UniProtKB/TrEMBL annotation:
A Pfam family this chain is assigned to: Asp_Glu_race
Single GO MF annotation: amino-acid racemase activity
SUPFAM superfamilies in UniProt: Aspartate/glutamate racemase
Listed name of the protein: Amino acid racemase
Stored PANTHER family: ASPARTATE-GLUTAMATE RACEMASE FAMILY (PTHR21198:SF7), GLUTAMATE RACEMASE (PTHR21198)
Lineage, highest ranks first: Bacteria, Bacillati, Actinomycetota, Actinomycetes, Streptosporangiales
Main EC class the enzyme belongs to: isomerase
Protein family (similarity comment): Belongs to the aspartate/glutamate racemases family.
E.C. designation(s): 5.1.1.-
Keywords: Isomerase
Keyword Isomerase: yes
Amino acid sequence: MGPAATADFYGKLVEETPATGDQSHVPVVIWADPRIPDRSLSLLGLGEDPTPQLRHGIRALKRAGCEVLAVPCNTAHAFVPRLADEAGLELVSIVEVTADALTAAGVTAAGLLATSGTLHSGLYADALRKRGIAPLEPSTGEQRQVSAAIAAAKAGAVTAAHRHALAGVARALAERGAERVVAACTEIVLALDSRRVPVPLLDPARLLARRVATVSLG
């Protein structure tokens, strides 16, 4: 739902599409509405329920002729599966494609960098545990640093201090046994240099783009 995250995802969709020209790319309708209430605050019981606005956007995409739904907001996946079903759209889940990638890589423990709402909802933790993968989450103090970096990315105000702190949390997760670190908030990749993480950093938005291209092009 964030403008920067939306632009980032569309760029990755273009990159991940095996096109030979304009006409062989995936036809896309983008519904970018930054007025949708904060999903993380809602899940924490601190903000407005975004369901009505999400439903409105999903139905608008259905009316526009869309058949496949991709939502490059991890936290929104606590709400969108039911709404996609209501609208009759096939949801390509950013959570499931990421969990599938970890399984395919034989990962047994993965670190999660995400909004507090995503962690609280158990979206990734549940999906990973179902596949026998241990989810590793930041400590309370580390999560405050993650949240600050996400907020800065949304405001276009990421500083060297934010990048340093985020890299420190990623390294701490690796030291606790994470074989991969998942950038489970789309803004994380806008604020974290993967070269500063001692284990591979997974970008769910890119994995989502790759799966959407595959599904859409058959």
